[in-house]
């Protein structure tokens, strides 16, 4: 059997990060993993002040990978963080400068996850995709921009208020290897967010630009359903590299998904692909498969619109139970077929250079 990236990552996950206590992949310090034939190379990016503590970590990581079948040569390097970008100058009263889309400091790519219709599983897909990318060694952020119904704190098992040590910038929260910020962390639980357009756009801009995201390979943005102010603001204020459209197979969801694709086309945001969620129902008792909402509707629509179909995610009780308990299925049952679908999407995006 030839050596795979997954085998190497699984071995590396047995090594702990002495600072965070997570494994070194989940802690987000693994960089630039390459597996070429029998040769494996990777970098551990660390705080230079902690270099001494990481010497044994590097040696341990090198050792577990060397012990894998099919490995001839391992090269593991320690590098220091790049210095953090200074916080943006956000003096109150400074008039807003009209500007085009900007890069979020430290963030390499932005992927928007959108749906035309509510409740089709956009947040579930965003959370699982973020965790799957983190498990594959990417530095991932998740911005819950679903300001009307933020659900990422629950899905990622994060609670409490984000700190703002200087009163200007906000420190994001982190779990399952994903750096996360959500309006749900700024409001009281159960409190409805009743905001009008301009306030809403201000809140989104603040979550993008004032949060200290750190260095990220990709920021996933979980958008509210539909084609409204938040979607427009995101595309106008930030350089969005691509959008993923989630839909269930029914016609009614597909009509709205089409509107979403049309909106991103108008905003010049490339469509990375569509995902059919709740595609096939798999009975958790007997494994019987049935198509509750029909099946294949999204594949047909994607073909018609000439966009890739990234995956068909089954409707399975475990997916909901995992999200409700704060550890998405990719984390709770990483080897389940449901989790594997999300891993496959993550791999496709990494292979395409999109994440
Ligand atoms: N593949 C799936 N299998 C089982 N349950 C699922 C699946 N996808 C989503 N769900 C469940 O369906 C519900 C709605 O999903 P989710 O909150 O992700 O949708 P959404 O599109 O983000 O909704 P909103 O309109 O609130 O933004 C949740 O309870 C979630 O756990």
Q: What portion of residues belong to β-strands?
A: 15-25%
CATH level-3 fold name of the largest domain:
Rossmann fold
Number of domains: 2
Mean pLDDT: 87
Quickly give the CATH architecture of the largest domain.
Answer: 3-Layer(aba) Sandwich
Give the class-level CATH name of the largest domain: Alpha Beta
Cα end-to-end separation: 27 Å
CATH homologous group name of the largest domain:
P-loop containing nucleotide triphosphate hydrolases
Tell me roughly what share of residues is in helical segments.
25-40%
Describe this structure in words.
It is a single chain. This protein has 355 residues and is α/β, with parallel strands linked by helices. It has 2 domains: 5-80, 2-Layer Sandwich (GMP Synthetase, Chain A, domain 3); 107-351, 3-Layer(aba) Sandwich (Rossmann fold), CATH 3.40.50.300. The chain has helices at residues 5-12, 51-66, 122-135, 152-155, 197-209, 229-237, 251-266, 297-305, 317-324, 329-332, 337-351, and strands spanning 30-36, 39-46, 73-80, 107-114, 140-144, 173-175, 178-182, 216-222, 242-247, 271-282, 289-290, 309-315. Strands 4, 5, 6, 7, 8, 9, 10, 11 and 12 form a 9-stranded mixed β-sheet that branches. Strands 1-2-3 form a 3-stranded mixed β-sheet, with helices on one face. It starts with a helix and ends with a helix. The mean pLDDT is 87. Bound molecules: adenosine-5'-triphosphate (ATP). Adenosine-5'-triphosphate binds at residues 115, 118-124, 146, 149, 151, 225, 277-278, 313, 315-316, 319-320, 323. Adenosine-5'-triphosphate is lined by residues 115, 118-124, 146, 149, 151, 225, 277-278, 313, 315-316, 319-320, 323.
């Amino acid at each position: 059997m030839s050596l795979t990236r997954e085998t190497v990552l699984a071995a590396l996950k047995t090594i702990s990060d002495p600072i965070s206590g997570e494994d070194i992949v989940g802690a987000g310090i693994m960089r630039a993993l390459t597996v070429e034939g029998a040769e494996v190379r990777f970098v551990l990016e660390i705080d230079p002040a902690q270099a001494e503590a990481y010497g044994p970590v590097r040696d341990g990581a090198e050792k577990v990978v060397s012990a894998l079948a099919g490995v001839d040569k391992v090269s593991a390097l320690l590098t220091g963080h790049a210095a953090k970008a200074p916080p943006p100058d956000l003096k109150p009263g400074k008039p807003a400068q009209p500007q085009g889309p900007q890069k979020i400091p430290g963030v390499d790519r932005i992927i928007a996850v959108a749906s035309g219709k509510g409740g089709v599983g956009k947040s579930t897909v965003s959370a699982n995709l973020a965790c799957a990318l983190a498990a594959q060694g990417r530095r991932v952020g998740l911005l819950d921009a679903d300001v009307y119904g933020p659900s990422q704190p629950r899905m990622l098992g994060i609670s409490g208020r984000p700190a703002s040590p200087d009163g200007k910038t906000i420190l994001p929260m982190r779990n399952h290897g994903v750096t996360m910020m959500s309006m749900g962390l700024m409001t009281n639980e159960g409190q409805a967010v009743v905001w009008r357009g301009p306030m809403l756009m201000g809140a989104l801009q603040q979550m993008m630009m004032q949060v200290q995201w750190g260095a990220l390979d990709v920021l996933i943005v979980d958008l509210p359903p539909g084609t409204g102010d938040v979607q427009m603001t995101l595309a106008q204020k930030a350089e969005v590299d691509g959008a993923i459209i989630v839909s269930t197979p029914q016609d009614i969801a597909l009509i709205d998904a089409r509107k979403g694709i049309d909106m991103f086309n108008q905003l010049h945001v490339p469509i990375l692909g569509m995902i059919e969620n709740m595609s096939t129902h798999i009975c958790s008792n007997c494994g019987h498969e049935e198509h509750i909402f029909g099946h294949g509707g999204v594949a047909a629509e994607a073909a018609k619109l000439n966009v890739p179909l990234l995956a068909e995610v089954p409707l399975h009780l475990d997916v909901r139970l995992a999200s409700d308990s704060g550890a998405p299925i990719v984390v709770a049952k990483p080897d389940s077929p449901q989790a594997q679908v999300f891993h496959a999407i993550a791999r496709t995006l990494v292979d395409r250079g999109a994440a």
